[in-house]
Amino acid sequence: MSIDLKQLKYFLAVAEEKSFSRAAERLHISQPPLSQQIMKLESELGVRLFARTTRSFELTMAGKALMQEATELLGRMRMTIDTIRQIDRGEVGRLRVGIVGSAMWGPIPSLLERFQTEFPRVTWTLHELGPDQQLEALRSKQIDVGFWREPRMDEEELKQSNLRQDLCFRENFCVAVHKDHPLARQDAIELTDIANEPMLTLHLNQSAEPRYLIQCCVNAGFQPAIFQEAAEPQTLLAMVGARLGVALMPQTTSRIGWPGVAFLPIRTNPPSANLYIATTSQDDAPVVRAFLKILNPDG
């Protein structure tokens, strides 16, 4: 048996119009090929679909049953096609986003808001992970995109990991000190001004970022004295507020009022807190393309 969707479409047109001539006009074809397709359909099914007399044109019982089934089938097919096209445009699907915690103090919330507005049928989830964890999650396809800060991965490492990494937000680090610290009276400081201060930092074995910041201090001419390490930026700020030391934090951190903490820009060669997005280079998922389009509409 060989029945195609075109035959069902032709059959429905005749059944709804109750006229071959009107159905042919509606379908923008001539009547002879329409009649041939209906006869072929009846032959394939082995039933009569229309009861034709000189005075009437009615569906048979088999025809009425086929009309109902064909209407539902073609409706489902149209919905399927619409869904497939929406998936191809990234309008339907799932997006798993990896982030470092400090990214939520910057542009990421507004980016997610725009994405939610433009692609309301996409389900997205946030996964707060360190850079190393995000890297492994991307490799194992547990997340679709990842956001982390400097230092940027080198091209060879990106190639070996089948990743691409793009700059999405420029930012510098600043110094977080207690609001009563003598440095807090200045509008900006040099990195060397904290050379003798107890340094609070994220775990040095957690990612390359805290090690990068230590190297920036060394490049500026001093070896920082690490007093405490922590897993979360909020913990560092709580310790700064408790007068336990100073910390290097992304400038966007200052947008949130942290009790007892002042944020000081660094005048000369501030460490970069640039935010990067990483994706799997071999994955061209439509929902990821849609997300990247929101991030870079001119890209």
Automatic annotation (TrEMBL):
Keyword Coiled coil: no
Pfam families: HTH_1, LysR_substrate
Keywords carried by this UniProt record: DNA-binding, Transcription, Transcription regulation
Domain of life: Bacteria
Bilayer-crossing regions: none
Domain HTH lysR-type: 3-60
Family as reported in the entry's similarity comment: Belongs to the LysR transcriptional regulatory family.
Protein name: LysR family transcriptional regulator
Source organism per UniProt: Massilia haematophila
Source taxonomy: Bacteria, Pseudomonadati, Pseudomonadota, Betaproteobacteria, Burkholderiales
